[in-house]
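Contributing new records

If you add data, match the layout below exactly. Sequence lines come first and carry their own label; structure lines follow with theirs. Keep one chain per record. Anything else will be rejected by the validation script.
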Amino acid sequence: MIDQMSRAPIVVDIMAVVLVLVLPAIVLSIVLAKRRQYLLHKRIQQVIAVVMGILIIGFEYEMRTMGWRQIAEDSPYYDSYVMPALIVHLLFAIPTFVLWILVVYGAAKNFGTPPKPSKYSMIHKRMGRAASYLSFGTGITAWLFYWLAFVVG
């Protein structure tokens, strides 16, 4: 039997592990786009979008139905750092989610198959860069919140 990494619900543990994999995948995807390997860039981004979409839905369902506070109360940081860490995380996560939807939708609407540069390319590049930076902020703050709320103690 596999032991969980933390006190967190399993979907939260899975999200923590997937974030370790997604962030390097984002970097790889950007490198591929810079090398004009647009189709591979597109495929990696599609996989990231689908995987993260499924995980976010599962995560939100779990948090809404099971909650997290009663589990996080065992953390020595529950009354001090857990909520500030969550707030900072949400300041990254919510804009990241919205921007990724816009980037993916814009790419689907403005790039053909196979994808190639168009008038939309500069907008896509700028929005994608912002979404990537926000994704790293989301990942770092998610790990911090995860550690403070569910691992320590």
